[in-house]
Amino acid sequence: MGVPLLKHLQDSVLSGVNPDLASERLTASFSVEKLTARLDGGAEHTRMRRAIVEAIESDPAFSRENQYFQSQNERYEAAVRRAVHLQKKMREMGWTENGPEIKYIYRWLSGDIAFLLHRVFMRSISVLGSDKQVAKWIPLATEHQIIGSYAQTELGHGTYLQGLETTAVFDIATQEFLLNTPKISAMKWWPGDMGRSATHTVVFAQLYVHGKCYGVHPFIVQIRSLQDHSPRPGVTVGDIGPKMNFEHTDNGYLMLQNVRVPRENMLSRFCEVQPDGTYVRWGSQKINYFTMTTVRISILSDEVILPLMKACTIAIRYSAVRRQSKLKPGEQEAKILDYQTQQQKLLPQLAAAYAFHFINIYLHELFDRGYQEIQGRNFDSLPELHAFSSGFKAMVTQYCTSGVEICLRACGGHGYSLLSGLPSLYTRVLASCIYEGENTVLFLQTARNAILLLITHKSEYETSACGLEYLSKFFQFSRLLSSSAAKLQHLIQSGAEKHEAWNQCTVQLVKAAQAHCHYITVKIFVETVEKLDNKAGIQKVMKHLCDLFALHGIFSNAGDFLYDGYLSGAQMDLVTASYLDLLAVIRMDAVPLVDAFDFTDKSLNSALGSYDGQVYQRLYEWAQKSPTNQQVSPAYGKYLKPLLQNRLSKL
Ligand SMILES: CCCCCCC/C=C/C(=O)SCCNC(=O)CCNC(=O)[C@H](O)C(C)(C)COP(=O)(O)OP(=O)(O)OC[C@H]1O[C@@H](n2cnc3c(N)ncnc32)[C@H](O)[C@@H]1OP(=O)(O)O
Ligand SMILES: Cc1cc2nc3c(=O)[nH]c(=O)nc-3n(C[C@H](O)[C@H](O)[C@H](O)COP(=O)(O)OP(=O)(O)OC[C@H]3O[C@@H](n4cnc5c(N)ncnc54)[C@H](O)[C@@H]3O)c2cc1C
């Protein structure tokens, strides 16, 4: 080790950094600061992000210090307090809802602030509301003069939207809609911010005019008084109770009994009921599902990819300071990061975190192009937007959830402690596999789109951005899809009804959709890496991660690639050898690669993942803060003391 490196190590250790972690930062093959800037989109963005993080973290109102010891009610109250304080902070700092700062604010606060569904409420109005409705409701919501929610899911239906039972009947005499949840299964159940916070909500209900059903449409409904927050007449509303996580959000239930709203309250950018009861629609009726499409893309960054980045940071830093067992007899216990199995657990998750960061940029670019067309009432891209948003939401949430769990389990017992931060990340990201569309049904939407194109051989799809232009090239997807299509057609030609034939192909179709999305992710990652400049060693280390992500996909699905000889056994041996060799190479950059995510200790909120690696001291210090260590347990006086004294008397 040269003198400068030795001095850097000494300085780090003197500043309190665990020497096992400090030494990992001496050999980075790239500039961490420059990679951070690349992830942020430039050094100026990094500066702004850091300034906003500093402004938030220096404000005690946003502290998460005792979060792991709080009850559901305490977590909810803290989340509301932060949301209300944020409005004051934004005014003080000159930050605005549409300003460049907002994404950094919610990136830091995500998972700990209330009114996330208030933002989805606003998005629904912005996307589906007429200009007049936007002008009326968005200012009220922006100023928090009303608090919104998004009420679509019912006790009896979440996936099958055509089966929703809430009704909205047009009353031509009063120019109103009469809303009802006619039976218990029609009760709205799950809407976030509804349990205790919301004053208004967008209710999705089956529209009836002159006795005819026009399908599911969105209606703005006031559910609580703006004077005393009491439920409005005909409204029964409350909280659905404890959940696996999401204590920062009060998911609620809602029953409606003859609740009347003005005709103007049906969101009518793309469809409306005129005063004489005439129903008019521009474009697909499925446009009323468009909020979900936008949220499926918008949640990926802060609600899904960020938890994986944080979990990788915690688990890799911990693996650099945790020494356990002897790798080489006679030497000190090894860092667990030096075990090949630990590398094979963690480094593919790190590669995925980088891959999804870049695919997220690509998805937003695709989505923005399609959304502009739709705003101009050109609905041609709607099916493709739906197909790719469904598939990628399902794939990224599934992969990140699995990845966070692997990181948790790779930290042994300390990973299971809430103080590690990993259980909260896991139970939070797990929800993303369910909300905004349960993953299986969304994969099937992607597969359905592909099958329709395959069967109709639509050539124009060959060239589309997320289309099937590689179908003839990309093996795994094309084989799975082609065999499913062939099976589908064979079953139908053999007399099976279409729905039954479809059902019998769905397992393979889900696999095909997963392969399709995985391939696109590899493709985008490769194209992104090719465009990187190699100043500061960034392109080289990103190439390693890209290769590892691709090889991990083949290594983990070897059967599909060996199937019908796409890869020979000898070639699979080469894949395995390259894959394992890469683990050892990337291991040397593992800590600098997570340092580049640039999480502060406060944003990680983890006793295992802090920058200084002083894990044991922090675990013990944080455990002392537990209320259970602040008082004699009541159980002693009531139960233990009598028990022990009873036993004592018999000794
Ligand atoms: C900051 C935010 C923090 C996040 C916190 C969490 C917030 C969570 C909120 C929620 O969970 S809100 C509720 C979310 N619910 C869902 O996502 C419901 C999932 N189900 C569906 O989307 C649909 O039911 C379905 C699974 C897609 C099936 O659709 P449908 O019931 O209509 O039947 P199909 O016959 O399959 O489809 C008919 C037709 O419509 C097309 N289509 C379906 N959905 C869309 C869409 N979103 N956009 C455009 N087109 C759509 C579908 O492709 C079919 O088209 P054709 O093939 O008939 O042309
Ligand atoms: C944390 C959280 C927050 C939420 N927030 C909101 C909110 O703010 N607003 C709101 O409206 N909703 C919200 N939801 C509800 C969420 O959108 C639904 O739970 C989700 O859409 C799944 O529907 P479901 O619960 O009815 O599950 P189901 O659809 O009953 O799914 C159960 C199982 O059935 C399978 N299945 C269902 N249909 C099919 C099919 N056609 N083919 C094959 N398999 C099928 C599924 O794959 C799954 O395995 C939230 C949920 C959670 C967990």
UniProtKB/TrEMBL annotation:
SUPFAM superfamilies linked: Acyl-CoA dehydrogenase C-terminal domain-like, Acyl-CoA dehydrogenase NM domain-like
Location in or out of the cell: Peroxisome
Occurrences of domain Acyl-CoA oxidase C-terminal (ranges): 478-645
Biological process according to GO: fatty acid beta-oxidation using acyl-CoA oxidase; lipid homeostasis; very long-chain fatty acid metabolic process
Cofactor section: FAD
Domain Acyl-coenzyme A oxidase N-terminal: 31-147
Main subcellular localisation: other
InterPro entries: ACOX_C_alpha1 (IPR055060), Acyl-CoA_ox_N (IPR029320), Acyl-CoA_Oxase/DH_mid-dom_sf (IPR046373), Acyl-CoA_oxidase (IPR012258), Acyl-CoA_oxidase_C (IPR002655), AcylCo_DH-like_C (IPR036250), AcylCoA_DH/ox_N_sf (IPR037069), AcylCoA_DH/oxidase_NM_dom_sf (IPR009100)
Gene3D superfamilies tied to this protein: Acyl-CoA dehydrogenase/oxidase, N-terminal domain, Butyryl-CoA Dehydrogenase, subunit A, domain 2, Butyryl-CoA Dehydrogenase, subunit A, domain 3
One Gene Ontology MF term: fatty acid binding
Residues engaged in binding FAD: 153, 192
GO CC entries: peroxisome
Acyl-CoA oxidase C-alpha1 domain residues: 289-449
Positions annotated as active site in the UniProt record: 436 (proton acceptor)
PANTHER family: ELECTRON TRANSPORT OXIDOREDUCTASE, PEROXISOMAL ACYL-COENZYME A OXIDASE 2
Family of the protein in this entry: Belongs to the acyl-CoA oxidase family.
Protein name: Acyl-coenzyme A oxidase
Organism: Apteryx owenii (Little spotted kiwi)
